[in-house]
Each structure stands twice: as C-alpha cells, then as structure tokens.
Amino acid sequence: MPISASRYFSGIALAGTVTYLSGCSPLASVLKQAQAGQALTVQPTVLESNGENVLFEVTAKVPASHLRKGAAYNLGLSYRYQNGLRQDTVGRLTFISGEYTYDEQQKDQLVIRKQFSFPYAPQKSPGELVALPDARETKPNGKRVKGKELVVARGIVTTTRLVVRQDTAITLLPETADNNMSGTRVLPFFFDAGKAEIRNYLGTNVAALEDFIEANQHTEKVMIVAGHSPDSLDRHDPRLADKRVQALLKYYKNRVDTDSYLNKVSQIDFETEAYHRRWDLFLNKVQQSALKPAQIDSVVLLINDTPGTYAQKEEGLRRLSFYDYLDQYIYPVMRFGTVAVRYSAPKRYDSEIYLLSKKIVEKQTEADALTPEELRYSANLTPLLAEKQRIYETAVATTGLWQAYHNLAVVLLLRSEKEVNPKVQRAYLRRAAVNFTLAAHRNPTAELFYRVGSAYHRAGDKLEALQNYDYAIKLGGPRAVLSKVFADKAALEIEVGQLDDALRSLSYSSKTYQNIMNRALIYVLKGNYQGAADIYALAIGLRPQDPLLYYCLAVVAARQQNEPAMAMHLRRAVQLDRTYANRAVEDLEFRDFAKGKQFMESLR
Q: In sequence order, what DSSP letters do the residues of 28-46 get, joined into one string?
C-alpha cells in the first residue's frame, strides 16, 4: 500500500503568500499565523480509485495562535485535471469551534481530520488535489482574503481498472420457418417466503401469462404445480403449497373469463398438484448449483442417509458452512409455482417470406401474413443490422415471444460494437439489456438472466448488472454457465470495490484466465504483492503472450520497489503491445521510477 507522507508548508514559504495579499489587515494576520508551521497530510499520498469513487483522508494542523473572534481560517479542496482546464470542488476544512481538536503531542496545534470523496472518471487521471487557503469573517457576507494555492496530492492510480472481463460471444438464435404453431408454454412463478400471493415483479411471469391468454391461442389443457422451500417460514404451514396452486388456478381462470374470447374455462382441462416436502426437487437444484462436488455430496448424504424428520434435516442444513449459499440461491427458487399450457393453432402456408416481412415491417400488410417463426427467420435473409433490427422490433410487437426479444437484444449489442460515440453505444447497450430482460422473463433461465446482467455490465449500470447476475445464480443451471456468471460477478465486485465479495464469488467459479488474473488483482489491492506475483505466474502458463499480464507484474514490482523486475516486465509488455508505453508514462504506479534510466529504456 502507498506509504503515508505529509506535505509541510513552513513559515518561510509564506513570504510570497503575505505579499500576495493586499495590506496587513486583521484577516491577513489570521491567514499568516495559521499558515506558519501549517502541515497537510493526505492519505493515500497518491489518490486511488476505489470502485466508482476516489476516497481519501485529509489531516490539517495549524497553530492555535491564529484564532480570532469573528474570523475563521479555511482550506478549500478542489481536484484539477485535463491539464488544468477542469476543476471540481471537493470540500472544505474550516477551523471553527466544533470542527477542530487539539493535537495530543503539540497542545498549541489545532487538528482537523476529515474524509472526502469524489466520483471517478477516466479523464480525471492524471490530475492533482489542490488546497486554497483563505481567512474570512464569520458574519454573513463577511470579507475574505486568499492565500496561494497549494498542490497537496496527485491522482489517480487506476490499478483497480486492471480487472479482466472476457465477454462471452453472444450470437443470434438460429431461426427456422416452421408452420406448426402447436406447443406447450411453461411459465414459472416464484413466491415470497411463507406467502401464497402472486407477486408482480422480478421472478414472476404475470405479464407473460396475461399476454399469452390475450393472444387467444386455442387452449387444450392447463397444468399447475407449486411447492415450498424447507426453511421454517415455508414449512410452518402444511397447506402452503396447496394455497399457491389455488392462487395460480384462480388467477388463470379469472384472466380467461375477462381477456379471452376464444377459450372458456369450462372447455379447458385443468390439472393441479401440490408438492409437499419434496427433497428430490431440492437435491435437483443443489446438483445444478455452483457448489463444489464435495459440498453437493455432503448435502445429498445429509438428506438421503441421515435419519431424522423433515425439520431436523433442515436444521442440519443450517449447520453447514455453506448454508448461506443454500439460503440465498436455492431456497428462493423452491418457493415456486409453474403453469404449463398446451395449445394449438391452425397451420399457415409458406409464402414469399422476405417480401412479406418487408410489407409487415412497413405496415403494408397484416402481421399474420407470416408465422412468428417465419417473421424472425426473415431477419436471416438480410445482412443489414438496421433491417434486422426493424424485423425483430416488429416480431416483438406482434408476437411478444422470448426468441424475438432475445435476437433483438443481440442485434442491438452488435450495433453498439460498431458505434464510436460512447453515449450512443451506451444507449444501444441499455436497450439490449431491456430486451434481454423481457426475453428472460418469458423464458427464465440462468443463461438469459446472465445475458441481462452482461448487457447492463457493459453499459456501466452496475447495480442492475449485479442484481441480474445474482438472479441467474438463484435460478441454477449448467455448471459452465454458473461458473461464467460467478466470474463476471466477481469482476463487477472488484470494479465497485467489494473485494471480499469478489473473492467469495471466485471460489464458486473455475480456474480460468479471467479468474486467475482477477484473484491476483485482489491480492494487489489488498497489499499481498508476493501472493499476487505468484498467481500472475500461473497465468503466464495460460497466456504467455498477453501484454496485460506483464504490465500487471510490472505494477506489482513497482509497489515492491523492485526496479529491475519492474523494468523487465514492463519491457516485455511494451514489446507485445506498444500502447502500454503510453499507458505506463501516465500511470502513477510508476511515479518513483518515471525519470529513471531503467524505466525509460523499458519503453523503447
């Protein structure tokens, strides 16, 4: 970690300050005496980004002799960047009663210690923290005299931005033209702990069910099932699963009565089943989780081979070291209900798919001239992203199927990659995230909610991304998908400064290059430099030609004050990618070596 240091501004340096002031007024006297022997300390000495903010602490000491009734000494803090063209106000230290204390070592010195922060942005590095001293009358609209501006710290070290995130390629779903419109629609629902009320927010399919009923597909059969989690809130009511089934059944019948003209409740075959104390459903979710094989085996052993009642086994689960994973990611999805609808629709004949799709998009013919599959398939027949987008937007508006929302989101992602304007790019990414969300609510899988989180992550909407990564994990799924979700969740947690949470997420993911690099970065940020170097060495075996890897090793060596190792790794990074030379020149991690011979030679 950076070593704490103080910047002292002695009375000798104040001669210029006094001449800077006009005359020798009482305020000028206050300013002069306050600055005589003044000391400012900033920790860290070089400002660092911590997640989305730059956090630091300022300690100011001034002689108590400067105090005057009706006057106050101030230090206004600002951050200046972009070669002095931009300056943001950070805060103020004011030596008035209640703001300062007396120094324990020097009783004639007043002390203010205060924490400050300001939002991080890439354009703010490099920059400098400056203090502007002044003395002013405390009465309203009182007079003020200024001292000379002091540079108290440089910034910003951006090592936290070395987080690695490898985007998984997202491709369009394959489209085929199929006239068979019959099928089964499965809509999962989730309930709050101990409750049977249908909720209309994240984790439900209320809107999707309403859209389906209003679409008036000929409904043959509806099957409704529901269950409960093992925790005490759910199991205290032995009929909770039955109540959840009845809530869904009543809701479905009411909607058919009010919103469907083709179907009648009396003509639909309804079948219901409530799942009570089903350990097999619980174990299935556990086996599809990101728990380690040994942890999964311990759960299976406890449930299948340990004697005891249902409640006693749940108490046994609570004593497991990883119970928090079960409580956070498994129990919520055990509080489920599922509505499965078997439906049919008349077949339609094929036509000139592409020409008809253009007419549908341009509103020259009705949308039912093509099946939903044919309309989406027509997007494959044009190479233009803008035209693909219009087709999928039409498919979304006319069918509301999850495949249309998904492929529209993918097209928006592809368009974002071709944009050079950051604002336009971010707008495309946010629209992609919204459409992935709509797709995921219609087909809730871990992979789709992962894509929602990924799109928000790319757009910089970190809270939304974190929530959707979390929900993807709760849904459960293939280990490969969950491993990637936890990997990107860890990367995001590093970006927002939640290092311990990131380490926990990494423990549920596999040992990929991304995860190795990010674990090493966490060690760097926590000050375990040797541990970080050891982990980076593992990454060399996976990607020996990666310039970022050697640049990270150079940062570690710089923090260890190992100039030869720093120069060696930096030289290798620059050899592999010349852009790292410019990056190193501006990186404050190398401030102690920037004028040295070895540093300069490593950039050639």
A: HHHHHHHHTTEEEEEESSE
Helix (H) or strand (E) holding 444: none
Using DSSP's 3-state secondary structure scheme, residue 71 falls into: strand
Contact 603, 578 (CB under 8 A): no
pLDDT tens, residue by residue, 409-429: 999 999 998 988 889 999 999
CA distance 492 to 498: 9
Using DSSP, how many helices (H) and how many strands (E) does the chain show?
A: 25, 15
CA separation, residue 465 to residues 242, 454, 460, 489, 491 (Å): 35, 7, 8, 8, 11
In angstroms, the Cα distances linking 358 to 172, 362, 370, 379, 385 are 20, 6, 11, 10, 14
Helix ranges restricted to H, 236-274: 240-259
Q: How far apart are CA 168 and CA 260, in angstroms?
A: 41
Backbone angles phi, psi at 582, to 5 degrees: -65, -40
- The tokens for 113 are 């210690």
- Give me the residue label for tokens 């019959």: 182
For 176-259, where are the alpha helices, taking DSSP H only? Answer: 206-214, 232-235, 240-259
Q: Cα(72)–Cα(138) distance, rounded to whole angstroms?
A: 6
pTM attached to this predicted model:
0.69
